[in-house]
Amino acid sequence: MSDRTKTITWQDPMIGAKAMTALSGLDYMRALLAGEYPPPPILEVMNLHLESVEVGTVTFTAQPDESHYNPIGAVHGGFACTVLDSVAGCAVQTTLPLGFGYTSLEIKVNYLAGITATTGPLTAVGTVIKPGKRVAFAEGVLTDSSGKVVATASSTLLVFPIPPQAG
Description:
By secondary structure, this protein is of the alpha+beta class. Helices cover 23% and strands 34% of the residues.
């Protein structure tokens, strides 16, 4: 056996969560992109990087590695699902007014090609199909470095008021 090590470091996730109560979803995502708030820990765990933010769309890059492997020696499907869930949710967030958040209700993923540590960087684009005051709909597309689509997703998200943060 040959041991491998991966160290994950993150900052307090509540810094950004508290900031969300004072900003629109678009302003928060833009501030996150600008580095004004620490990235959510899931980005570090999954090796994701926010690349661009516009109203109704976000782009992330993702770098799969061996720590994402399943028992058959390929990147686990949950990696692609998590990346697509993230871009769909963040795209919806860009459409939300001050004081509102979201959570995933449902996601359907289509896996079109395998992913390994040698696949290289992936690009994930999330796009809002229909914003809403209670429910929003978004799609995500995950492509490899050559532009080949490796997975797609459609997502339904619940929109809700964020309770004020104490303290």
